[in-house]
Amino acid sequence: MTEPGSNNADRAVAPKQPFISNYGLVLTVYILYLVGFLIGISVVIGVIIAYLLRDETDEICRSHFQF
Fold first, then answer.
1. Ramachandran sector of residue 14 (left: φ over 0; alpha: ψ -120 to 50; beta: rest)
2. Which of 5, 9, 19, 38 has the highest CB neighbour number within 10 Å of its CB?
3. 29 exposed, middle or buried (CB, 10 Å; 0-12, 13-18, 19+)?
């Protein structure tokens, strides 16, 4: 039962936490880029990962993925 006069609109919504560890994800993509100098396909895999998961990270990691 709720108290009179209170409604759900007064509650603050917590920001959504990233699903994947941002540091580990960025590091993984950078390693795939570096290995891409030897094996070309890893660059494509890194680009796909960065593109698909860019919305699930914070602003700093998102800027790394855009770079």
1. beta
2. 19
3. buried
Report the distance separating Cα 46 and Cα 35, nearest Å: 10
Token duo for residue 2: 């709720």
**DSSP code for 59:** H
In the chain, what is the greatest distance between 2 CA atoms, to the nearest angstrom? 67
pLDDT by residue (tens digit) across 21-59? 578 888 888 898 899 888 888 889 888 888 887 777 777
How many angstroms separate the Cα of 38 from the Cα of each of 20, 27, 28, 48?
27, 18, 16, 18
The pTM of this model reads: 0.58
Structure tokens at 10: 């007064």
